[in-house]
Amino acid sequence: MRITLVVTVVLAAAVLAMASTGRTDRHALHPLPDFQTGGTLMLTVEIDCDGISVLQCTEKPSLRFGNKAYEARLPFHWTLVDAEGQVITSGGFNPGPMELDPKFRGTDGRVEGCQLIPASTAMNIKVPAVPFHEIRFTIRRDREFEPFGTAVVGEFPVRR
């Protein structure tokens, strides 16, 4: 009884918190249940002040994609879209501290104390191995998300 009450209170608080943000559906993340088959695609992306670009995609058929709960406050989001423009699913990721001010374009970044905040980085992100037409990236700026890159299937190499 106590566990049910706690879960109900936590869920109600989460719903109220989401409602109070005033987010519209176009900013909502679209998670799907865990994918039981199909595996995972590992996208290698490059991030800099000009946006996010996909460098390559590696199929990982034996790696089950777990669409775990993710923090809606992550600074970057990806959205898989079909050929008709319908959202399939979306998720978020955090590459860590980055300097995205265009004045640092082409440099190593900026120094903050004894830490270098890079102006560009490359990382891997996992997405489910489902058919999609394009992947759209957004970045959180204050409380809004802005477009930050798009890649259409066929524009990047796929390694099997």
Task: Please give a structural write-up.
By secondary structure, the chain is mostly beta strands. It has one domain: Immunoglobulin-like (Sandwich), CATH 2.60.40. Helix content is 12%, strand content 42%. It is built from one helix and ten strands. It has one helix spanning 2-20; strands spanning 40-48, 51-60, 76-81, 87-93, 109-112, 115-118, 121-128, 134-141, 144-152, 158-159. The chain is globular. The protein starts with a helix and ends with a strand. The model is unreliable at 1-27 and 30-36 (pLDDT under 50).
Topology:
Blueprint: H1 2-20, E1 40-48, E2 51-60, E3 76-81, E4 87-93, E5 109-112, E6 115-118, E7 121-128, E8 134-141, E9 144-152, E10 158-159
Parallel strand pairs: 2-10
Antiparallel strand pairs: 1-2, 1-7, 3-4, 3-8, 5-6, 8-9
Number of helices: 1
> Which range best describes the helical content: under 10%, 10-25%, 25-40%, 40-55%, 55-70% or over 70%?
10-25%
The biggest sheet, with number of strands, parallel, antiparallel or mixed sense and barrel status, is:
4 strands, mixed
Average pLDDT figure: 79
Q: Rg, please? A: 18 Å
Apparent shape: globular
Count the beta strands.
Answer: 10
Whole-number total of structural domains: 1
* Strand content range: 35-45%
User: Could you tell me how far the N terminus lies from the C terminus, measured between alpha carbons in angstroms?
Assistant: 49 Å
CATH architecture: Sandwich
Q: Which structural category fits the helices and strands?
A: mainly beta
CATH topology heading: Immunoglobulin-like
Question: Strand order, biggest sheet?
Answer: 7-1-2-10
CATH class: Mainly Beta
H/E series, N to C?
HEEEEEEEEEE
